[in-house]
Amino acid sequence: MKMMLETDSQHAYRNIDSGQCPGCPSNLAAKLVMQIVYQAADREGVEPIIFGQGCGIGRDLLQRSGIGTHDSACVGLLAAMEMRGIHRPVVVIDGDGQIDMGFDDFSGAFQQGHPYMHVVCDNQGLSASGSHATGMTDLLARVSSRPKGRLGKPDGRGAVRKQPAMMIKFSGAAYTATAAVSHLPDFIQKVERGLSEMPSFIQVFTPCNVNWGYDDDQSVTITRLGVTSGIWPLWEWGEDGFHRSLPFSHNNFRKRLGEYVRGQRRYAHLAQADMAAIEEYVLRLNDLVDRLERGFGGSNPSSA
Ligand code: SF4
Fold first, then answer.
1. pTM of this prediction?
2. Whose CA is nearest to atom 4 of ligand 1?
3. Nearest CA to ligand 1 atom 5
4. 71, 74, 133, 188: most buried by Cβ count inside 10 Å?
5. Bridge partners of 30?
6. 17 confidence band (pLDDT: 50, 70, 90)
7. Closest ligand 1 atom to the C-alpha of 123?
């Protein structure tokens, strides 16, 4: 275990990222979430309880209950705390592999309605074990278990990724959102809101330098291009309705999507027809987001 020092300016929770690669976006996301959660708890005079595990996330610090069981562990813990009159914020930080492996655990816990926040650092793969696909791996992206990037159907047709942040709204989430550290004020606002409207879920876009194949100083550039190209739309869905955090640009998305794809070796195998399929996928995804906003939109949108 690494040594963790606590001083006036350096808190032990900052070591959440010990063991992660330099420049890893989930490193930054996890550290920021911890900081916001601890500062909010400090104002209440309590200490938070954080569960989690991901690719390097909190190897030395976080509470663990086992793969795919963080949510039910929170439910058990919160039930015991309620019986004893204990009030401390409870938060999960983990990765997209955990959502796949524990979807019943995840959706069942939200259905119970206990007040906790779950943040997923989504790098679209099981990065810690060599980048196998998860249900969140994007269309045609190469992973170690599918070197040609043909995810899904046996004849090579692609399967699009799951949308757990949308799905969990129908399992009892009071607040659910997508976020990215390239859009920091929006990210901070969503984590703070997630703490005040529980149960809450935030799916954070966290590219992976190693398995997506880009230089580690390009993390913010790739993250920003993912958002501005529309392949990772930012939105939130709380009591005030569904709101996009950033408009989709029909005029510019193809250029930005091209830069996003060319910037990663996991797309190096794509042919021209593949690029058209990804563009179509982005258009359909953003059409879905627009329809959700038209159908469930309220009157108080925020902006990234
Ligand atoms: S393998 Fe990827 S997700 Fe894991 S710590 Fe390294 S850059 Fe981050």
1. 0.92
2. 55
3. 20
4. 71
5. none
6. low
7. 3
Q: How many domains does the chain have?
A: 1
Closest ligand 1 atom, CA of 25? 8
Q: Is residue 304 part of a domain?
A: no
SS3 state of residue 270: coil
Kindly indicate the confidence band of residue 2, based on its pLDDT and cuts at 50, 70 and 90: very low
Q: Binning pLDDT at 50, 70 and 90, where does residue 273 land?
A: confident
Domain contains 8: no
Q: Is the CB of residue 250 less than 8 Å from the CB of residue 194?
A: no
- pLDDT-derived band at 18 (thresholds 50, 70, 90) equals low
DSSP conformational letter for 161:
P
* 167 assigned to some structural domain: yes
Instruction: Answer yes or no: is pLDDT of 176 > 60.
Output: yes
Q: Write the CATH number for 144.
A: 3.40.50.970
The reply to whether 210 falls in a domain is yes
| Ligand 1 centre distance from Cα of residue 81 (Å) | 34
Q: Which residue has the higher pLDDT, 130 or 285?
A: 285
- Which protein residue's CA is at the shortest distance from atom 6 of ligand 1? 21
CB-based contact 119:107 (threshold 8 Å) = no
Which among 209, 217, 219 is the best mutation to test ligand 1's pocket, defined by most ligand atoms within 8 Å of the CB? 209
Q: How many CB atoms lie within 10 A of CB 262?
A: 12
Residue nearest to atom 2 of ligand 1 (CA): 208
